[in-house]
Specification:
By secondary structure, this protein is of the alpha/beta class. Helix content is 42%, strand content 17%. It is built from seven helices and eight strands, in the order E-E-E-H-H-E-H-E-H-E-H-H-E-E-H. The relative contact order is 0.18. Bound molecules: farnesyl diphosphate. Farnesyl diphosphate binds at residues 25-30, 43, 46-47, 50, 69, 74, 88-89, 92, 141, 189, 214.
């Protein structure tokens, strides 16, 4: 946990911020449908929100922001939509390098990206390398990510190395080994479920569900949620 007094924030006073915020970005398709547009237009608009929320988190001093961008189950979507999302991701990453560097943002990916094209894998590696020195926010994109898959891969790695399965060993082999546990999980679009997202890392997270569709999600709403977070009493199993 850290304290902030940051004039750049929309928050009025000194605030206790969560260290690690994770967001299930949902509702792009419905946003587009409401406007008579193709689902892909919703994803394009969703990218703008990814950019604004990421730079805002960097400005107010949040240290880790994990965004659920493509799940292990998203391959079941129509082929054209999957292809569109892959291209959009490529375009986003290539365009984003300057924004990352200007805002001191380190970029990291979690998930099993072996299934992605070699081109996309090398773009991801390149941006991770070029931003590895950044010390502000770490933006973590969850790509071909599923918590059950991640935990299974972690346990298998530990077994291959003949290590005893303990909480520490699993933490060490999870894709998120470099990040602290999640303090706050937000899901947009009114769905109240976790959808295989950071199940291990959110053992003691606070949850916040909003009806706002992801393309409509703003810094102002995030501030409201952060303000709500500070009022929750976190006991981590104690009394
Ligand atoms: C859910 O909307 C959204 C996703 C499939 C993942 C989020 C993707 C983006 C924000 C765009 C790509 C991101 C990057 C970083 C390039 P949905 O399609 O499930 O919406 P619906 O539930 O209304 O159909």
């Amino acid at each position: 946990m850290s304290f902030m007094t940051n004039s750049q924030s929309l928050l009025p006073t000194t605030y206790q911020l969560p260290t690690h915020v994770a967001i299930i970005m949902d509702g792009n398709g419905r946003w587009a449908k409401e406007r008579g547009l193709k689902r892909t237009a919703g994803h394009e608009e969703g990218v703008k929100t990814v950019r604004s929320i990421t730079t805002y988190c960097a400005k107010i001093g949040i240290k880790y922001l994990t965004l659920y961008a493509f799940s292990t189950e998203n391959w079941n979507r129509p082929k054209l939509e999957v292809e569109f999302l892959m291209k959009l991701l490529e375009k986003y990453l290539i365009n984003e390098l300057n924004t990352y560097l200007q805002n001191n943002i380190r970029f990291k990916v979690i998930g099993n990206i072996c299934k992605f094209s070699t081109k996309l894998q090398s773009i991801i590696k390149d941006i991770e390398d070029k931003t590895s020195h950044c010390k502000g926010l770490t933006q973590i994109l969850a790509l071909n990510y599923g918590s059950q898959d991640e935990i299974t891969r972690a346990v298998n790695r530990a077994l291959v190395n003949e290590e005893e399965i303990t909480i520490d060993t699993i933490n060490k082999y999870l894709d998120t080994y470099f990040a602290p546990n999640v303090d706050l999980v937000i899901r947009t679009s009114g769905e109240i479920r976790i959808s295989n997202f950071l199940l291990w890392q959110s053992a003691y997270s606070e949850y916040f569900f909003t009806k706002t569709l992801w393309p409509d999600f703003t810094e102002f709403e995030l501030d409201d949620i952060l303000s709500d977070f500070t009022k929750r009493e976190r006991r981590f199993g104690g009394i």
